[in-house]
Amino acid sequence: MQADDPTDAERYRAPALDKGLDILELLAEQKDGLTRAEITKSLGRNASEMYRMLERLVARQYVVRSPAGDRYSLSLKLYALAHRHPPMNRLIAEALPVMQRFADRAEQSCHLAAYDRGNLLVIAQVDGPGTWGISVRLGARVGLIDTGSGRVILAFQSPEQRTHMLTEHTRVKGESALDPLALENAYAQIRADGFLHKESQQTFGVMDVSFPLLGPSGQAIATLTCPYLRRIDEYVAPSISEVSALLGDAAAALSMFREPDVEFGDSRDSSAA
Which residues form the IclR-ED domain (predicted)? Predict the structure, then answer.
Protein backbone atom coordinates (compact mmCIF):
# COMPACT_ATOMS: atom_id res chain seq x y z
CA MET A 1 0.00 0.00 0.00
CA GLN A 2 1.35 3.46 -0.91
CA ALA A 3 2.17 5.85 1.92
CA ASP A 4 -0.53 8.32 0.92
CA ASP A 5 -3.27 5.69 0.61
CA PRO A 6 -5.92 5.79 3.33
CA THR A 7 -5.79 2.99 5.85
CA ASP A 8 -8.75 0.67 6.37
CA ALA A 9 -9.56 2.56 9.56
CA GLU A 10 -9.77 5.84 7.66
CA ARG A 11 -11.62 4.37 4.69
CA TYR A 12 -14.42 2.86 6.74
CA ARG A 13 -14.86 5.56 9.38
CA ALA A 14 -18.36 5.97 10.91
CA PRO A 15 -18.19 9.22 12.91
CA ALA A 16 -21.56 8.84 14.62
CA LEU A 17 -20.75 5.31 15.74
CA ASP A 18 -17.33 6.45 16.97
CA LYS A 19 -18.97 9.15 19.10
CA GLY A 20 -21.31 6.65 20.71
CA LEU A 21 -18.53 4.17 21.39
CA ASP A 22 -16.34 6.95 22.82
CA ILE A 23 -19.10 7.79 25.30
CA LEU A 24 -19.61 4.15 26.31
CA GLU A 25 -15.89 3.58 26.79
CA LEU A 26 -15.55 6.77 28.82
CA LEU A 27 -18.48 5.96 31.09
CA ALA A 28 -17.20 2.42 31.62
CA GLU A 29 -14.28 3.91 33.57
CA GLN A 30 -16.40 6.18 35.78
CA LYS A 31 -17.57 5.03 39.19
CA ASP A 32 -20.13 7.81 39.74
CA GLY A 33 -21.00 8.76 36.17
CA LEU A 34 -20.37 12.09 34.47
CA THR A 35 -22.33 15.20 33.61
CA ARG A 36 -22.89 16.09 29.97
CA ALA A 37 -20.40 18.94 30.33
CA GLU A 38 -17.77 16.57 31.74
CA ILE A 39 -18.33 14.11 28.90
CA THR A 40 -18.08 16.89 26.31
CA LYS A 41 -14.85 18.20 27.85
CA SER A 42 -13.26 14.76 28.23
CA LEU A 43 -13.95 13.80 24.62
CA GLY A 44 -13.23 17.23 23.15
CA ARG A 45 -16.52 17.18 21.26
CA ASN A 46 -19.20 19.71 20.41
CA ALA A 47 -21.82 20.10 23.16
CA SER A 48 -24.80 19.81 20.82
CA GLU A 49 -23.59 16.57 19.21
CA MET A 50 -22.91 15.08 22.63
CA TYR A 51 -26.42 16.01 23.72
CA ARG A 52 -27.98 14.24 20.73
CA MET A 53 -25.80 11.18 21.15
CA LEU A 54 -26.52 10.89 24.88
CA GLU A 55 -30.25 11.22 24.26
CA ARG A 56 -30.12 8.33 21.80
CA LEU A 57 -28.05 6.16 24.16
CA VAL A 58 -30.53 6.85 26.95
CA ALA A 59 -33.46 6.09 24.64
CA ARG A 60 -31.85 2.76 23.66
CA GLN A 61 -31.14 2.06 27.37
CA TYR A 62 -27.36 1.78 27.05
CA VAL A 63 -26.95 4.81 29.32
CA VAL A 64 -29.05 5.90 32.30
CA ARG A 65 -29.48 9.28 33.97
CA SER A 66 -29.05 9.76 37.70
CA PRO A 67 -32.25 10.36 39.71
CA ALA A 68 -31.45 14.09 39.65
CA GLY A 69 -31.02 13.89 35.88
CA ASP A 70 -27.64 15.61 35.80
CA ARG A 71 -25.26 12.64 35.50
CA TYR A 72 -24.95 9.78 33.05
CA SER A 73 -23.70 6.26 33.67
CA LEU A 74 -23.77 2.92 31.90
CA SER A 75 -26.84 0.72 32.26
CA LEU A 76 -26.57 -3.06 32.37
CA LYS A 77 -27.74 -3.49 28.78
CA LEU A 78 -24.24 -4.28 27.51
CA TYR A 79 -23.86 -6.75 30.38
CA ALA A 80 -27.14 -8.43 29.42
CA LEU A 81 -26.17 -8.55 25.75
CA ALA A 82 -22.88 -10.18 26.65
CA HIS A 83 -24.77 -12.93 28.45
CA ARG A 84 -26.81 -13.68 25.33
CA HIS A 85 -23.62 -14.00 23.31
CA PRO A 86 -22.20 -17.42 22.36
CA PRO A 87 -19.83 -17.50 25.40
CA MET A 88 -22.94 -18.12 27.51
CA ASN A 89 -23.77 -21.05 25.25
CA ARG A 90 -20.27 -22.38 25.84
CA LEU A 91 -20.76 -22.01 29.59
CA ILE A 92 -23.95 -24.05 29.36
CA ALA A 93 -22.22 -26.72 27.28
CA GLU A 94 -19.41 -26.96 29.84
CA ALA A 95 -21.76 -26.79 32.81
CA LEU A 96 -24.19 -29.55 31.86
CA PRO A 97 -21.78 -32.51 32.30
CA VAL A 98 -20.59 -31.05 35.62
CA MET A 99 -24.17 -30.53 36.74
CA GLN A 100 -25.10 -34.06 35.72
CA ARG A 101 -22.24 -35.53 37.77
CA PHE A 102 -23.36 -33.47 40.75
CA ALA A 103 -26.98 -34.59 40.38
CA ASP A 104 -25.96 -38.24 40.16
CA ARG A 105 -23.72 -38.08 43.22
CA ALA A 106 -25.87 -35.76 45.34
CA GLU A 107 -29.16 -37.37 44.28
CA GLN A 108 -30.59 -33.87 43.96
CA SER A 109 -31.52 -31.58 41.09
CA CYS A 110 -29.63 -28.37 40.30
CA HIS A 111 -30.01 -25.38 38.02
CA LEU A 112 -27.81 -22.67 36.57
CA ALA A 113 -29.10 -19.09 36.47
CA ALA A 114 -27.69 -15.89 34.97
CA TYR A 115 -28.70 -12.25 35.31
CA ASP A 116 -30.96 -10.96 32.54
CA ARG A 117 -32.72 -7.59 32.44
CA GLY A 118 -33.51 -7.12 36.09
CA ASN A 119 -34.01 -10.72 37.19
CA LEU A 120 -32.49 -14.17 36.80
CA LEU A 121 -32.97 -16.51 33.87
CA VAL A 122 -32.62 -20.28 34.38
CA ILE A 123 -30.28 -21.30 31.56
CA ALA A 124 -29.60 -24.95 32.48
CA GLN A 125 -31.41 -27.55 34.59
CA VAL A 126 -30.59 -31.14 35.56
CA ASP A 127 -32.85 -33.46 37.52
CA GLY A 128 -31.65 -35.86 40.19
CA PRO A 129 -31.78 -39.62 39.55
CA GLY A 130 -34.30 -40.49 42.26
CA THR A 131 -38.06 -40.84 42.22
CA TRP A 132 -38.56 -37.64 44.18
CA GLY A 133 -37.16 -34.22 43.43
CA ILE A 134 -37.84 -30.59 42.70
CA SER A 135 -36.73 -28.69 39.63
CA VAL A 136 -36.98 -25.17 38.25
CA ARG A 137 -38.22 -24.92 34.68
CA LEU A 138 -35.60 -24.16 32.05
CA GLY A 139 -36.12 -20.62 30.78
CA ALA A 140 -37.99 -19.51 33.91
CA ARG A 141 -37.42 -16.01 35.24
CA VAL A 142 -36.86 -16.07 39.01
CA GLY A 143 -36.65 -13.29 41.55
CA LEU A 144 -33.48 -11.32 42.12
CA ILE A 145 -34.22 -10.36 45.73
CA ASP A 146 -35.61 -13.34 47.60
CA THR A 147 -34.04 -16.39 45.94
CA GLY A 148 -30.74 -18.00 46.82
CA SER A 149 -29.54 -17.56 43.25
CA GLY A 150 -30.44 -13.87 43.23
CA ARG A 151 -28.77 -13.05 46.51
CA VAL A 152 -25.60 -14.87 45.56
CA ILE A 153 -25.27 -13.18 42.17
CA LEU A 154 -25.83 -9.79 43.83
CA ALA A 155 -23.37 -10.52 46.63
CA PHE A 156 -20.53 -11.19 44.20
CA GLN A 157 -20.74 -7.91 42.26
CA SER A 158 -19.06 -4.56 42.70
CA PRO A 159 -21.24 -2.08 44.63
CA GLU A 160 -21.80 -0.12 41.40
CA GLN A 161 -22.86 -3.19 39.44
CA ARG A 162 -25.16 -4.31 42.24
CA THR A 163 -26.80 -0.88 42.29
CA HIS A 164 -27.41 -1.09 38.54
CA MET A 165 -28.93 -4.56 38.88
CA LEU A 166 -31.25 -3.44 41.65
CA THR A 167 -32.22 -0.37 39.64
CA GLU A 168 -33.21 -2.59 36.70
CA HIS A 169 -34.98 -5.10 38.93
CA THR A 170 -38.69 -5.72 38.44
CA ARG A 171 -40.52 -8.02 40.84
CA VAL A 172 -41.63 -11.38 39.50
CA LYS A 173 -44.89 -13.01 40.59
CA GLY A 174 -44.85 -13.71 44.33
CA GLU A 175 -41.47 -12.09 44.98
CA SER A 176 -41.07 -10.68 48.49
CA ALA A 177 -39.94 -7.12 49.11
CA LEU A 178 -37.09 -7.10 51.63
CA ASP A 179 -35.37 -4.43 53.66
CA PRO A 180 -32.32 -2.98 51.84
CA LEU A 181 -30.20 -2.96 55.02
CA ALA A 182 -31.00 -6.62 55.69
CA LEU A 183 -29.99 -7.42 52.12
CA GLU A 184 -26.67 -5.59 52.47
CA ASN A 185 -25.94 -7.57 55.62
CA ALA A 186 -26.86 -10.77 53.80
CA TYR A 187 -24.50 -9.93 50.91
CA ALA A 188 -21.62 -9.39 53.32
CA GLN A 189 -22.27 -12.75 54.99
CA ILE A 190 -22.53 -14.54 51.64
CA ARG A 191 -19.22 -13.08 50.49
CA ALA A 192 -17.59 -14.10 53.75
CA ASP A 193 -18.90 -17.68 53.50
CA GLY A 194 -18.51 -18.01 49.74
CA PHE A 195 -22.01 -19.41 49.25
CA LEU A 196 -25.57 -19.30 50.60
CA HIS A 197 -27.54 -21.96 52.45
CA LYS A 198 -31.05 -20.90 53.44
CA GLU A 199 -34.66 -22.03 53.57
CA SER A 200 -36.51 -21.41 50.33
CA GLN A 201 -38.87 -18.44 50.39
CA GLN A 202 -40.94 -20.02 47.62
CA THR A 203 -41.56 -23.63 48.75
CA PHE A 204 -41.88 -25.25 52.18
CA GLY A 205 -39.42 -27.99 53.02
CA VAL A 206 -36.76 -26.88 50.51
CA MET A 207 -33.30 -25.65 51.46
CA ASP A 208 -31.61 -23.55 48.78
CA VAL A 209 -27.87 -24.08 48.43
CA SER A 210 -26.33 -21.58 45.99
CA PHE A 211 -22.76 -20.98 44.84
CA PRO A 212 -21.42 -18.33 42.46
CA LEU A 213 -19.66 -19.06 39.20
CA LEU A 214 -16.94 -16.43 39.23
CA GLY A 215 -15.52 -14.73 36.17
CA PRO A 216 -11.92 -13.52 35.73
CA SER A 217 -12.62 -10.32 37.70
CA GLY A 218 -14.05 -12.20 40.67
CA GLN A 219 -17.63 -11.17 39.96
CA ALA A 220 -20.41 -13.74 39.62
CA ILE A 221 -21.36 -14.48 36.02
CA ALA A 222 -23.96 -17.08 37.06
CA THR A 223 -25.12 -19.08 40.06
CA LEU A 224 -25.39 -22.82 40.60
CA THR A 225 -28.23 -23.77 42.94
CA CYS A 226 -29.54 -27.00 44.43
CA PRO A 227 -33.08 -26.92 45.89
CA TYR A 228 -32.27 -29.54 48.51
CA LEU A 229 -34.99 -31.96 49.64
CA ARG A 230 -34.33 -34.07 52.77
CA ARG A 231 -35.44 -37.69 52.69
CA ILE A 232 -37.44 -38.78 55.76
CA ASP A 233 -37.92 -42.46 54.89
CA GLU A 234 -35.42 -45.27 55.53
CA TYR A 235 -33.30 -44.50 52.49
CA VAL A 236 -29.99 -42.85 53.43
CA ALA A 237 -29.33 -40.11 50.89
CA PRO A 238 -26.41 -37.64 50.93
CA SER A 239 -26.78 -35.07 53.70
CA ILE A 240 -27.08 -31.37 53.05
CA SER A 241 -23.45 -30.93 54.16
CA GLU A 242 -22.33 -33.51 51.62
CA VAL A 243 -24.50 -31.95 48.93
CA SER A 244 -23.11 -28.49 49.71
CA ALA A 245 -19.56 -29.78 49.35
CA LEU A 246 -20.38 -31.44 46.02
CA LEU A 247 -22.09 -28.32 44.72
CA GLY A 248 -19.16 -26.17 45.82
CA ASP A 249 -16.79 -28.43 43.90
CA ALA A 250 -18.99 -28.17 40.81
CA ALA A 251 -19.12 -24.36 41.02
CA ALA A 252 -15.36 -24.15 41.52
CA ALA A 253 -14.79 -26.35 38.48
CA LEU A 254 -16.84 -23.94 36.35
CA SER A 255 -15.41 -20.73 37.82
CA MET A 256 -12.57 -18.81 36.20
CA PHE A 257 -11.48 -17.06 39.40
CA ARG A 258 -11.22 -17.93 43.09
CA GLU A 259 -10.78 -15.46 45.93
CA PRO A 260 -8.05 -16.73 48.28
CA ASP A 261 -10.40 -16.51 51.29
CA VAL A 262 -13.34 -18.28 49.62
CA GLU A 263 -13.52 -21.96 50.50
CA PHE A 264 -16.00 -23.56 48.13
CA GLY A 265 -17.71 -26.57 49.61
CA ASP A 266 -17.64 -25.28 53.20
CA SER A 267 -20.87 -26.62 54.67
CA ARG A 268 -21.39 -23.86 57.22
CA ASP A 269 -24.92 -22.46 57.30
CA SER A 270 -24.90 -18.88 55.95
CA SER A 271 -28.63 -18.33 56.30
CA ALA A 272 -29.49 -14.79 55.23
CA ALA A 273 -31.52 -12.36 57.21
Answer: 77-260
pLDDT tens digits, one per residue of 209-247? 999 999 877 889 999 999 999 988 888 899 999 999 999
Nearest to 91 by CA among 209, 219, 222: 222
Find the radius of gyration of the CA atoms of the chain: 22
Q: What's the 3-state SS for the chain?
A: CCCCCCCHHHHCCCHHHHHHHHHHHHHCCCCCCECHHHHHHHHCCCHHHHHHHHHHHHHCCCEEECCCCCCEEECCHHHHHHHHCHHHHHHHHHHHHHHHHHHHHHCCCEEEEEEECCEEEEEEEECCCCCCCCCCCCCCEECCCCCHHHHHHHHCCCHHHHHHHHHHCCCCCCCCCCCHHHHHHHHHHHHHHCCEEEECCCCCCEEEEEEEEECCCCCEEEEEEEEEECCCCCCCCCCHHHHHHHHHHHHHHHCCCCCCCCCCCCCCCCCCC
Distance between CA atoms of residues 184 and 47, nearest Å? 39
Residue 111: alpha-carbon gap to chain centroid: 14
Q: Give me the domains of the chain, ranges plus CATH numbers.
A: 8-75 (1.10.10.10), 81-254 (3.30.450.40)
CB 19 within 8 A of CB 25: no
pTM for the whole structure: 0.65
